[in-house]
Task: structure prediction
Amino acid sequence: GAVVSQHPSRVICKSGTSVKIECRSLDFQATTMFWYRQFPKQSLMLMATSNEGSKATYEQGVEKDKFLINHASLTLSTLTVTSAHPEDSSFYICSYSALGGGFEETQYFGPGTRLLVL
Amino acid sequence: AQSVTQLGSHVSVSEGALVLLRCNYSSSVPPYLFWYVQYPNQGLQLLLKYTSAATLVKGINGFEAEFKKSETSFHLTKPSAHMSDAAEYFCAVSVNTGKLIFGQGTTLQVKP
Result:
């Protein structure tokens, strides 16, 4: 299966600061990627979908100005949480779909980033 | 709209016993269905997926799932549980844009 890395694995920051999370595909070129957040003991909720070179499509209720997504290359996507607040504390997970996000395709998930905002 | 329901947020079995994790789906079109496993503080790993080929799908680590259209179910089974199977399991359905809709998750506990 595909290998996806995320950095950092864990970050603690002060309220009001911005945090950038990187998601890399290590062994294939990813045209479509997804960002999820997961609260403790809950399921994954899709935040946004992006295609390389295009603007991200955000799910209803997700603030696009707060969660900035950049998918500038086929191997790197970043999620920046701007002006983070304690309620943004969560587990953020990215995933890649190798062939364009068709609905029968497998998504490969990164190991996740634990964000704690104090 | 597509949705997934996992019956039972917590399942406990003895080591060596049968594992059965239930998943029911709702979809207006033929669904693509997935089972993922998540170990603590890690991302998700694909166990298996159904893509309209065979209704009985075999996955990794001895898991398999059967697609039953009449029951709108895609239950996950393993004949004999191992301690290393203890984890969180998610059933998911893929919608026509490639997005995954996840169920609530089921925590599998394996007792020695």
Summary: The first strand of chain A starts at residue 4 and ends at 7. The interface with chain B takes residues 1, 4, 6, 32, 34, 42-46, 49, 91, 93, 95, 97, 100-112, 114 of chain A (CB under 8 Å). Chain A has no helices and eleven strands. The radius of gyration of chain A is 13 Å.
